[in-house]
Amino acid sequence: MARPKGKLLALVLVFGAITVVTATGAFTTVEAERTADVNVSGDASALLALEPGPENGEYVTTDGGEVQIQLGGPQGAEGVNVNSYTAINGMMNVTNNGQNEINLHVNTNGSHPEYVNIYNGSAGSGTNITDGENSVTLSPGDTVQISMEIDTRDSGLDDGADLIDSIEFVAESTDN
């Protein structure tokens, strides 16, 4: 019985071509749908928790989910004195509730942010973490006490001048 060699050879070549094409694994486009959940939480349970501190926490309040620092006093006093130095130690605790180690610094924004510094530790003697010049590293679960220093001596500011509008806490993962 004669065997048809041409058909067998053609079949082997087709399987060989399929093997070569599928062995490269090359593709130009892949499309896949994924879902992600992002939730908003209160400051105490967020990845970066901001809470009033033990020493001067009365200056820190929360209003509508926003942390505010209120420098006022009795009889309607507002702000700090012109041409003065004010230190508020231990006003806030910042806790890393995430799973990664972070570097933390703050940015101050406003008309005269150069007169306001934020410290890890005591004002003037701790690490100044304002505007990214320095940062503090927090491992998961670590808490640091934040202090504020306001120095308007020799500033030439007038009574009623605005210093800052906001403080932005910046947490950057060290796992880059």
Overview of the structural elements:
The protein is mainly β and 176 residues long. The chain has a single domain, classed as Immunoglobulin-like (Sandwich), CATH 2.60.40. It has 1 helix and 10 strands. The strands form 3 sheets. The chain has a 5-stranded antiparallel β-sheet with strand order 1-4-9-6-7, with no helix packed on it. The protein has a 3-stranded antiparallel β-sheet with strand order 8-5-10, with no helix packed on it. Strand 6 (116-120) and strand 7 form a beta hairpin. The protein starts with a helix and ends with a strand. The relative contact order is 0.18.
Q: What's this, in brief?
A:
Helix content is about 10%, strand content about 35%.
